[in-house]
Amino acid sequence: MRNPVRSLLAPASVAIVAACGATTSELTDAQRVAITSEVNQAIDELFEARNTHDVDRLLTYYLDEDDFAYVGLVDVKSGRGAFNQITRLWHRANPHVTFQHQILHTQVLSPTSALVVSRGSTTDVEVLTWTHVLTRDDRGRWVIAHEHEAWPHCGDVPKPHPMTAEP
């Protein structure tokens, strides 16, 4: 029997490896520091956009391709269409929610890809952890190719998170 999550994430893993291209050993320390700064700035801007609830602006921080994958606590969304829909619905229904975050770790994978782990909270959820895999797009901007959200101390989850629930 085919594992549906593996089927969705396998192309994402291939995309991450392909996006890496050159290895970090080909980067100088100065290049690695510069990329880390650029990527962290992109994540900070992402959270600023989340707090405006301007979904059109928010979605510009995500890779606009079918390879995009969102992994939530109890759900996986593959492709930008599904993610765009749930993002619009969630922000429409939750204009009161604000996000706080702190970048815990940034790992430069290549000149065009990086991984960022952030911890934070919202006005509704006490502790959240985000893992973002970013890639440099054709315009030179850092965009999120894959996003994972986790609620470490949430206990049993009786239903899908509202952001990932089907309309």
Features:
single chain, 167 residues, alpha+beta, 6-stranded mixed sheet, 4 helices, disordered N terminus
Write the SSE topology.
Blueprint: H1 4-20, H2 29-52, H3 55-59, E1 69-71, E2 76-78, H4 80-93, E3 99-110, E4 113-122, E5 128-136, E6 142-150
Parallel strand pairs: 1-6
Antiparallel strand pairs: 1-2, 3-4, 4-5, 5-6
Explain how this protein is built.
36% of the residues lie in helices and 28% in strands. The protein contains four helices and six strands. The two termini are 28 Å apart.
Write a concise synopsis of the structure shown.
36% of the residues lie in helices and 28% in strands. By secondary structure, it is an alpha+beta fold.
Strand arrangement, major sheet: 2-1-6-5-4-3
Run of helices and strands? HHHEEHEEEE
Give the overall silhouette: globular
Mean of all residue-level pLDDT scores: 80
Straight-line distance between termini: 28 Å
Tell me the major beta sheet.
6 strands, mixed
Rg on CA atoms, Å: 16 Å
